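[retry 2/3] CASP-like protein: previous attempt timed out, resubmitting with same input.
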Amino acid sequence: MKDFPGTPGTFTALTLRVLQFSFAAGSIVCITTTPGFFEYTALCYLIASMGLQVIWSFGIALFDAKALITKKILHNLVLVSLFAIGDWVTGMLSLAAASASAGLLILYFRDLGKCQSDCLKYWMSVTLAFMSWVMIEISSLIMFWLLAAG
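[retry 2/3] CASP-like protein: success.
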């Protein structure tokens, strides 16, 4: 396998994972600090999806940090395949949850004009979820690129 930025065990990969984790955790914090978020199923789905994203990104960030400390690049085909599949699954769940939540916010708060005092937090949460999805998709593309180049 070739060695390029974003390869598991590099500083770029660790940075992507930390950003994924941070954006997903920020999304959860923004939405859970609002009373009544549980009334909307799409927002609950967003929390569940971002929770999975937090766990996945944190776990892979630990792998990357350990590889950086021991100065190893993780080019194991099975490991890269696992990372690619995990990134793809969590990426699709994150995109679905963020899109569903954005659709809900547009319908209820913009079209129907039912914006409460917490609608800014909802929008911030969805924005952070989309930013987390962008980071996971970058990681996913790098993993598929590694598999194709390998």
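[retry 2/3] CASP-like protein: Helices lie at 11-32, 41-70, 77-111, 119-149.
[retry 2/3] clearing retry counter.
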